[in-house]
Specification:
The chain has helices spanning 75-84, 104-122, 144-156, 161-170, 229-242, 282-302, 321-333, 335-342, 348-356, 387-393, 421-428; strands at 21-23, 34-39, 52-67, 88-98, 129-136, 179-188, 195-205, 218-223, 258-263, 310-318, 368-371, 374-378, 381-382, 398-404, 410-417. The protein is of the alpha+beta class and 432 residues long. The chain folds into two domains: 16-300, 4-Layer Sandwich (L-amino peptidase D-ALA esterase/amidase), CATH 3.60.70.12; 310-428, Ubiquitin-like (UB roll) (Roll). The strands form two sheets. Strands 1, 2, 3, 4, 5, 6, 7, 8 and 9 form a nine-stranded mixed sheet that branches. Helix 1 packs across helix 2 (104-122), helix 2 runs parallel beside helix 3 and helix 7 (321-333) packs across helix 9. The termini are far apart.
């Protein structure tokens, strides 16, 4: 019998090492000119849990941001969206434990007042301070913890990996681990095109209510590359579209999703050439930003509420990019697919059904499916499968599903996780 070869998956371009970048220490503080702090300010009942993060540049710098497209957006989203349009900022203050969503004019007032407290502590204009919140929806956010916490956090601001880690911990809600990463590499942005070492890093929180439509729950990224405002915005939008927007835990889009990118321009002591869209250094820096976002996106999916597996869904052979994305999202969101993975069941029928239900036209007899490199369906018909072997393969922490529609040349990748008993328990007990 002729051996059936596994499906080929296109190589993606969000691996920083492909562009000369390597992992480094520092998280959001890897970039020169970035400071961070994470403290317990009293938003949570447990004083041992950090719940207020402050991330600031040493001075006002280029800043780009993306926000949730959920129409029921929170007060901090409204405030930060308005201010981020200027293309520069000094700091962002983030709290966990309370989303400040569905809180009306009072919620907006608290968002503005918390930013004013940060501006006073840093000696900058209020318009240069962004705000973000995460937690329970529909509960008024108190100002008192900001009044106590902001001066303390400002006093604690420092350029260190430990401070970056504290900030990453302070924004966690149902996350089981803090999520942060950073890379460094050389790009030709020095005077006369000389190579300069730049850093890109950041942190993210997100574990449930995850199907972003811009970024993810809350993310703060930074780089010391001298990006122009236009270049920072373009790089962030491209990165978000290919990474955070390709994550789904439970198909729900938060009211508070916000992603911020600070570009200090402090690499090489600031003796650099500006990086615009047509600069030779732009592709490398954009790839590094995309790589940071990709790493953080995978961490979100791997830490999905109650999850035991990181699942990557690849769709190839689609007639259009929209078709590829739609099919990938349908499979990644399918409760039946996700529960089958939890049960270690190579149930290709659920994958086929999820692909077929989403309205994308294709010929079912042109469809091929693989689980973890094992062909299970070819030309719409099942192949013999060693069930014991598949059970062993499902013990792996990462599960890959590949489906080819046989309809074109377009490709999509989506990250998700399995659906477990603990997901129901965590969300059933969220407010209780």
């Amino acid at each position: 019998m002729k051996k059936v070869e596994p499906l080929a998956v296109p190589v993606t371009d969000d691996v920083p090492q492909s562009y000369g970048f390597e992992p480094c220490e520092g998280g959001v503080c890897a970039a020169e000119g970035m400071l961070a702090a994470g403290i317990s300010a009293g938003f949570r009942k447990n004083p041992q849990r950090k719940d207020l993060a402050l991330v600031a540049a040493e001075e006002s710098c280029v800043c780009a941001a993306t926000f949730t497209q959920n129409r029921f957006c929170a007060a901090p989203v409204q405030v930060s969206r308005e201010r981020a349009a200027a293309g520069h900022a000094r700091a962002v203050v983030l709290n966990s434990g309370n989303a400040n969503a569905a809180t009306g004019e009072k919620g907006l007032e608290v968002a503005y007042q918390s930013a004013a407290l940060v501006a006073s502590a840093l000696g900058c204009d209020e318009s240069e301070v962004l705000v973000a919140s995460t937690g329970v929806i529909g509960v008024q956010l108190p100002l008192d913890p900001f009044e106590v916490g902001v001066p303390a956090a400002a006093q604690a601001l420092v350029h260190s990996a430990a401070a970056a880690h504290d900030a990453a911990c302070a924004v966690m809600t149902t996350d089981t681990v803090p999520k942060e990463v950073s890379f460094s590499g050389q790009v030709p942005c020095g005077l006369g095109g000389a190579p300069v070492t730049i850093h890109v890093g950041g942190f993210v929180k997100g574990s449930g209510m995850i199907q972003p439509n811009m970024a993810t729950m809350l993310a703060v990224l930074s780089t010391d590359a001298p990006l122009t405002s236009e270049a920072a915005h373009a790089a962030l939008l491209a990165a978000v579209g290919q990474t955070f927007n390709k994550v789904t835990v439970d198909s729900d889009t938060s009211t508070n999703d916000s992603c911020f990118l600070f570009a200090t321009g402090k690499a090489a002591g600031g003796i650099t050439e500006p990086i615009d869209l047509d600069s030779p250094a732009y592709p490398q820096v954009a790839a590094a930003i995309r790589g940071v976002c990709g790493d953080l996106a995978r961490k979100i999916a791997a830490d999905g509420e109650g999850s035991t597996k990181l699942v990557t869904v690849y769709v190839t052979g689609a007639a259009s990019q929209a078709d590829a994305d739609t099919v990938a999202r349908s499979i990644a969101n399918s409760p039946l697919v996700k529960t089958a993975i939890f049960g270690h069941d190579a149930n290709w029928g659920r994958v086929a059904a999820a692909a077929g239900k989403c309205g994308v036209p294709f010929d079912q007899y042109a469809v091929d499916i693989d689980f973890m490199g094992v062909p299970v369906l070819r030309a719409g018909l099942p192949l013999a499968m060693d069930e014991d072997d598949m059970l062993c393969r499902f013990e792996a922490p990462e599960i890959d599903i590949v489906i080819s529609l046989g309809a074109g040349e377009f490709f999509s990748r989506m990250w998700t996780c399995d659906l477990t008993h603990d997901y129901v328990r965590i969300n059933g007990e969220y407010r209780t």
